[in-house]
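chain below, 330 aa
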Amino acid sequence: MPEGPTASAQDRHRELRSKLLHPSLVFFQLIFVLVLPSAVTLLRVREGYTPPNFADDPSPLGYTYSLLLWIIPLAYLVLWFCLHTEYKIQRKAFGLTLAILLPLGVVLDLLFANSFFTFENSGAILGIEIPGRGGGVPIEEYIFYLSGFLFVLLLYIWADEVWMDRYNKPHGHDDYQNAGGLLQFHAASVVIALVLLAAAWIFKKFVSGDPQGFPLYWAYLLGAALVPSAGFYRSTKDFINWRAFSFTFLLVTLVSVVWEASLASPYGWWGYQKDAMMGLFITAWNQLPVEAVFVWLVVTYTTVILYEVVTIWLASGKSLGAILFGGSEG
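prediction:
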């Protein structure tokens, strides 16, 4: 008699453990245990340092040359991708994903660059500006985001196909052939996004000491992550190579934090409009807003989900309507 309930309890335990150890959840668990001690440590710094006088031109064309942090590794990845002509589905998925993503970076700069960012150190840029809402935007800013998207996407593809290929799903797998109805509402994504936005607004209005404005940049980041997550997370989470995703995110975040915290923020290559931030600034990093740390999590998350959606569609051989909504090919 006791064996039945015991076996049932063991099965429930295995099922719970399997859910908790799903690679998608393990990734967010790792991020939490890394972010928590980092935040506690950084909050102990209460006094910042005095930035240099920008009139003295302390970093001539610094922003311009710093773009090599994206461009040189990107050149390596482009060369690798061009040499491997067997990646036919990956190449098509790469092109289609970029066609969806690049407008996000362009729209960000055209419509919101002057609402979110500042460019105080004129000596750090070429001086070539592209007209945007609220004034001109340095050409470096466009190159920064467009090359950043390219780098994230190609780095994930490289990690998925080469560095961590043991954990990817071959495109001939039955799961691709049986895929359909990818557009599935994920309520948790919406709830999390709304809770995070409400928390940011409350913090700005009642805690930050600078209640002017609205956390618009945070809202933009949440929206950029929410749309693909709410529509496709449930259907793509078992196709995403979460080890490759983790590698991509951690490497991109390392580069961006070093870039912003030690160079861009102290030397005024770009800054942030305080009214558009939630008001949580990192003193040890020259008052860098916390949004700047999370932006590349959003970029990586959105990029990978969209890439996998396109890859599933191409590998399945089905029409776009069938792959998104299910049902018959007609």
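The first strand starts at residue 117 and ends at 118. The first helix runs from residue 3 to 20.
thats it, cya
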